[in-house]
Amino acid sequence: MRNSKFMLVFIIGISILANNLQAQEVNPTGTNIRSKALKVFIDCHHCDMDYIREQIPYVNYVRDVREAELYILVTSQSTGSGGRKYSIFYQGLQRFKGMRDTLIYTSSPDETRDKIREGRTNMIKMGIMRYVARTPLFSEVKIIPNAGLEKQEVKDIWNYWVFELQTEPQFDIEQSIKEISWDNSASAYKITPDWKLEFEFNQSFDSRKYIYKDTTYLRYRSYWSFDNLVVKSLTDHWSAGIVGNLNSSSYRNVQIGFGFAPSVEYDIFPYSESTRRQLRILYGVGYKYQQYRDTTIYNKIQENLFQQQLRMAFRVQQKWGYVNVSMVASTYLHDFSKNRLTFDGSVRVRVFKGFSLRFYGSVARINDQLSLVKGELNEAEVLLRIRELATSYRAEGRVGIVYTFGSIYNNVVNPRFGN
Question: Most buried by CB count within 10 Å: which residue of 80, 110, 181, 203?
Answer without folding.
Answer: 110
